[in-house]
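Q: A reviewer asked whether we had any structural model of the full assembly, not just the individual parts. We don't, so I'm hoping you can provide one. Inputs are below.
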Amino acid sequence: MDKFDTAIIHCLRQDARQSVSSIAEQVNLSRSAVAERIKKLEQTGVIRGYQVLLSESQKEGVSAYFEIQHKCPRCADVVHVFHAIPEVITCRGISGDMDLLVYVHAPSMRRLHEIREYIDTHTDIIKIKTHVVMSEWINNLGE
Amino acid sequence: MDKFDTAIIHCLRQDARQSVSSIAEQVNLSRSAVAERIKKLEQTGVIRGYQVLLSESQKEGVSAYFEIQHKCPRCADVVHVFHAIPEVITCRGISGDMDLLVYVHAPSMRRLHEIREYIDTHTDIIKIKTHVVMSEWINNLGE
DNA sequence: GCAAACACCGGCAAAATGACGGAAAAAATG
DNA sequence: CATTTTTTCCGTCATTTTGCCGGTGTTTGC
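A: Here is a predicted structure for the entire assembly that you could use as a starting point for your response.
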């Protein structure tokens, strides 16, 4: 992973479908050298694949972030709530006003609302802020 | 968005870097027809772009969320800033006060701070809120 | 010093692409 | 219903890109 690999990955992050030749021009290497490097990056697992980025409206379902504030002495005491929701993808404790940031992907807005209400029933939870995801610009995880 | 478009997108989701010819074979259309359809899907915004999927380079480090507010008429105009940062893992447009929620994983707090300052240099960006991840409770993705 | 391994380059044939005109199908018009 | 218009598709040609190869220079280890 030297500066050339970094540059190549930078190019692919701009547009993963551009030609190897075009990348070679941008990074000032021969086409075959770039092709070799990309193949190696794929084989060693640095590059896990290539994704098409769709507008959020085309995806089935709705994603959202919940910011959660609770009154439990420890986060651990409230996390079981989110374990019980299969749509929860990530749940992390964060610095700032709120305590937790929970990312969910629900099949429908109706279900999303249901999840929100379910969370709300828990007395330990003081405050919820919902942020519906309206567009996805970068996703290096493949969700 | 008929069944052909769906099939094409399905192919691209498998591997966004495969050739148009290969997709044409899989969906039983001529190469030029598929190329036209893809171009149209790009122009109408159904396909927003193509991304390379990277493996988490190192488990060590610091993660954080940046809430971003900007003054660009369209989010797309400001997203290139985050494409330029290899540590960015997700970047999504959200409802609420802020416009974007960016998740990053940096090798060190020093580097995280560097990223924050880099983002701050961009005049289009009005406001940044940083939330350092202090604990991870649920992660259904294997980042 | 001398192989071996590595990364790079350039060249060639094969494959993929972009651009075009024209046929067929679908939609809109009278 | 007939006809125009639009859309979608196909095949072809010139160009670009790709995969594959041998050859060269540089680093690595014995």
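A: Points you may want to mention in the reply: Helices of chain B lie at 3-14, 20-27, 31-43, 76-83, 109-121. The longest strand of chain B covers residues 125-139.
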